[in-house]
Design goal:
The protein has 2 helices and 4 strands, in the order βαββαβ. By secondary structure, the chain is α+β, with helices and mostly antiparallel strands.
Length: 122
């Protein structure tokens, strides 16, 4: 595998935690912990506004759309950088009290290879 990869995760904020409380932990504790790892390029956070039930061509997207609060993208230079990222955390674990445990309820978590289509390419 070559080229950029992303770990993409969709999740809900756990019940009993306010969005402000969650964001404070996320931006002041969790993201700084992740970004101490030299193998991650950056993180992008998307707050989900609503599911989209039809494509631009009018085709239905899903009978029962999956609903969750947010999508996070962890960006890496390549597959090797991602593997090094995992290894680095074995040597430098995030303490459990600073982790997503009890704060984030994961819906999915996948590793993807990135390909980009740009207007000038078509």
């Amino acid at each position: 595998m070559s080229g950029k990869v992303k770990a993409i995760l969709g999740y809900d904020i756990a019940d009993g935690i306010s969005e402000d409380e969650y964001d404070s932990w996320l931006w002041d504790i969790h993201y700084p912990d992740l970004l101490t790892n030299p193998y991650i390029d950056h993180i992008e956070l998307d707050t989900v506004l609503r599911p989209i039930t039809a494509t631009s061509a009018g085709t239905a997207t899903a009978e029962s759309p999956v609903k969750f609060d947010r999508i996070a993208e962890l960006h890496f230079a390549d597959h090797e950088a991602y593997e090094s990222y995992l290894e680095w955390f074995k040597e430098h674990p995030i303490p459990r009290e600073r982790s997503p445990e009890g704060r984030s309820e994961f819906v999915f978590y996948v590793l993807s290879e990135v390909r980009v289509a740009r207007r000038q390419d078509v």
